[in-house]
Amino acid sequence: MTNSFLLDGEEVPFTPGQTVMQAASAAGKYIPHLCWHPDFAAHGSCKLCTVKIGGRFATACTTRAAAGQEVENGTEELIAKRRTLLQLLFVEGNHFCPSCEKSGNCVLQATAYEMGMLSPHFDHFYPDRAVDASHPDVLLDFNRCIMCELCVRASRDVDGKNVFALSGRGAKSHLIVNSESGRLADTDFAATDRAAEVCPVGVILRKRVGFAVPIGQRDYDAKPISQKAVEKLADSEKEAG
Amino acid sequence: MAAMNIESILDRHSREAHRLVQILRETQDALGWLAPESLTAIAEGLDIPRAQVESTAGFYSFFHTRPLGDYRILFSDNITDRMLGNQDLMRTLCEKLWLEPGRVAEDGLVSVDATSCTGMCDQGPALLANYRTITRLTPARIDEMAHLIRRRVQVGDWPPEWFHVEDNIRRRDVLLDHGLAPGEALAAALDRGPTGLLGEIERSALRGRGGAGFGSDIKWRSCRDAWGDAHYVICNADEGEPGTFKDRVLLSSYFDMVVDGMCIAGFAIGASKGFIYLRGEYRYLLDRLETRLAQRREAGLLGRNILGRGFTFDIEIHLGAGAYICGEESALIESLEGKPGKPRIRPPFPVTHGYLGQPTTVNNVETLALAALIAVKGGEWFRAIGTPASTGTKLLSVSGDVARPGIYEFPFGVTVAEVLEAAGATDTQAVTTAGAAGSCLAANEFGRRIAFEDVPTGGSIMVFDQSRDMFEAARNFAHFFAHESCGFCTPCRVGTAVNARLMDKLALDRGSPYDLDEMEKMHHLMQGASHCGLGNTATIALRDILAKFRPAFDRRLHSPDYEPGFDLDAALSQARRMTGRDDAGAHLTDNLSAHAGGHPSEAKP
C-alpha cells in the first residue's frame, strides 16, 4: 500500500511520522488552524483543525497520517463547527478588529473570514484584562489572547527563555510572564526573540511601527488565508531548502 | 522566617520540580497563602522558571496567590448539598460574619465561598474549614462556627464531633464482606506469580470502576510489556464526580485491600513504586493513611522484601489541590509531575508513556481492591457474579432524596428500581447515574440495569423526588463544568462558560426557546471536538434533563418567542445609585425598552 490518504477525496502523499496536518500542508492543502505552526510541536488546543477521519472527529495536527485514511475537511458540518469555535474565541476575549494593529495580518480574523463568520453570535464576555506596556520595545495587549501558547512554545523551545506561560483554569485561563512583578519589562524578553513574532493575533506588538503598512494592503487583505497559508509555508521551505 | 520555611520544605522534597504541587501546598499551609515572593523563592530553589511555578499555583482551586483570611470556609456546593439547604446556611454564616460570599473580610480574618462536591453527600450539607472536612451542618453549628471564628479559636480546637465522617455502609457484598487479613491477598498473588495472576485477572473480566470500564488485564499487560526504565502504579483516588463517595469509604475502612491491590498491580506489571493521588478534599484522611502505610512497612507488608519473598514495592501519597480534571488519568499524571492538570495528547497512552514518561497503570481505588479479592478467590469465581459483560459487584454512592443515603454494594445487573427500593426512595422523579457527567433517568427508565452495557456508572447515584426542580440540578451541573474545565481546548473552555451563562439567563426568567437551541448546539460542538472526556461528557446530563424534564425549563421561558437578555431598566440601576434617585422618572415605565435594546449578539466585532 502506498503512503497516501484521501483528503476530501483527493489523494495526499505522506512520509511516515507525519501528521495529517503536516502532510496536507506539504501537499498545498489548507486545513484551518490557529495553534498549529510548522516550526513548533503540535499543541492541539484550538480545535480549529478538527477533521473527520473514518467518521470520527480528530485534530489534524495531532493525528498521524496513515495509509488509506479517509479524511473529511471541507464539509459543511466541519465548517459550521469551526465557525462556532471562532465565535467562541471572539466573545471570550475583547476583539475589535477595526482598531486593532493586527487587522489584515491576524490569523484569527482571516480564518473567521475564510469560514464565513458574519457575527460573533454569542453574548460577549467582556473580560477585564490590563495591557502591559512596560517593555521598551514591545506591547502586550492580553485582550486578544486566544491561549494558543505559540509564544510559550517559541520562548521555551527556540529562545530558551520561558518568558510566557498560561496560568489560571477554565475561562479564567490567562497569559502570564516570567517575573515577580508580572511585567514584561522585568523579564529577559527581547524584541529579537522568536516569541516576539509568532503571535497569530494582536497580543505581542512591536512599538513604534504600528500601521506602517496601511490596513487594506496587508497579508490577508490581498488573499484569503487558505491561499496565503499555503504560500507562506512554501516560501519558508524554499528558504530552509 | 518565610524563607526558612520554604527552604526546609524544598529540602524535604529533595528540590525535585515534579513535586511542585506538594511543595506549594506545604508552603501555603505554613505561610497562609502563596505570596509573589514565595513563588519566586520556590522557582529559584527548584531551578525552574518562575512562570512555571505561577502556572501551577494559579491552576488549582485550593491554592491562593492572594491572602484569603485566617479562616477559609468553603461550602460544598453539589446539588445534594443544595437540596439539604447549604445556600441558606452559607448566607447565614456570611451575615453573622458581615461578609459577602467570595470576598475576604475587611480585617482579613475570614472568607466564605463555595467549592465543588466534597464527597460528603450522604452526610451533608458539608464544608471545608481550612481544608478540613465538617459534615452534617445545621443552623446551630453555623451559629457556633461564627462565634468560634470571631473569637479566633483555631479550627483544630473546634468541636471534634463536627469532623466526624460516617461510612454509612448500607449493603455489603463480596468486597465489603471480604474477611481477609491485611497482606493475605498479596501473599496469594505472589503465590500465583505474575503470569498466573494476570491470567486470573483476565478470567475475571474485571473492568475499570472509574466509569469507562476499560479491561484491567489489557491495561496491566500493555503496561508490563512496555519498555521503560521504571514502571509505576497509580491509584486514582481523585474521587471528584459529584455525588460519589465510595472511594472515601474504601480508603477509610478498607485501606489494606486497596494497598494490597496496588502491590498486586505492581507485582503484575513489574513496578516497585506506586502513588496514591488523593483528592485535596480528602485531606483529613492523609495522616491516617500515612500512619497505616508506615505500619505496613514495619509488618513487612510494604517496602523492601515484602513478606520475605524478595518483592519490593513502596507507596507515596500525593495530595491534590481541588481540580476535578485530575481524575482524568493523563491530567492526574501531569499534576503528579508538578504541572497544571491538563490532559495530554493521546496517544501515547500512560501505559507506555505515563509518569515521567515511563509505563504507568492508573487504576481506580475500587478496581484495585477488587483485584486483591480476585487474587485470592480467582477469576472464575468473580466472573460468576454480575452480568457476562459487567462482572463482579459495584459500589454505589447513593444520596439525595432517600431515607438511607450511603454505600450500597450490588452485583452488576441490579435495576435502578431495586437500588431505590433498598435506599428507601419514595415518589422519585429522576436519578442521575453518573454524577454531573452522565445520563439522568426518568421514572419510566427505572427498570434499566446498572451495567456497562446498559446504565454505566462510576458509582454516583443522586436521587430527586417529585418536589425537586430539575432545572436547578441542570444549572448546578452547568456551573460545575464551567468551574472545572481545565481551559486547554476552546470548545470546553468557552462552551462550558456559555452554557453556565445561558442557564443563569433562564434562571432569571429572561430566556427563550432560542437559548435552549443554543445549548443543544453547544452539546453538538463539545461532543467530538473537545480534547478529553470532561468536555465530551459535560453536556450529557444537561441535555438529558432538558429532553426529559422540559416543563422545568418551559415555565422559565419569558415568552415563547425571541426575548432579549438585555434589561435596559436594570442597566440604569447604577446611574440611579450614583444620582441617589429612585423616583418614577428614573425608571422606565413600560417594558418597551427591553425590546428596543436589540440583542447583544447582533453587535459586530
From TrEMBL, chain A:
GO terms for cellular component: membrane. The keyword Iron-sulfur applies. Residues 1-77 form the 2Fe-2S ferredoxin-type domain. Keywords: 4Fe-4S, Iron, Iron-sulfur, Metal-binding. SMART domains: NADH-G_4Fe-4S_3 (SM00929). It comes from the Bacteria. One of its GO terms (biological process) is ATP synthesis coupled electron transport. One of its GO terms (molecular function) is metal ion binding. Its cofactor is [4Fe-4S] cluster. Gene3D superfamilies: 3.10.20.740, 3.30.70.20. Residues 77-116 form the 4Fe-4S His(Cys)3-ligated-type domain. InterPro entries: 2Fe-2S_ferredoxin-like_sf (IPR036010), 2Fe-2S_ferredoxin-type (IPR001041), NAD-red_Hydgase_HoxS_gsu (IPR016214), NADH_UbQ_OxRdtase_75kDa_su_CS (IPR000283), NADH_UbQ_OxRdtase_Gsu_4Fe4S-bd (IPR019574). Belongs to the complex I 75 kDa subunit family. This is NADP oxidoreductase. It comes from Thauera propionica.
UniProtKB/TrEMBL annotation, chain B:
Keywords: 4Fe-4S, Iron, Iron-sulfur, Metal-binding. Residues 579-605 are annotated as: Disordered. Its cofactor is FMN; [4Fe-4S] cluster. Residues 471-516 form the NADH-ubiquinone oxidoreductase 51kDa subunit iron-sulphur binding domain. It holds the Pfam family NADH_4Fe-4S. It comes from the Bacteria. GO terms for molecular function: 4 iron, 4 sulfur cluster binding; FMN binding; metal ion binding; NADH dehydrogenase (ubiquinone) activity. Belongs to the complex I 51 kDa subunit family. PANTHER family: NADH-QUINONE OXIDOREDUCTASE SUBUNIT F. This is NADP oxidoreductase.
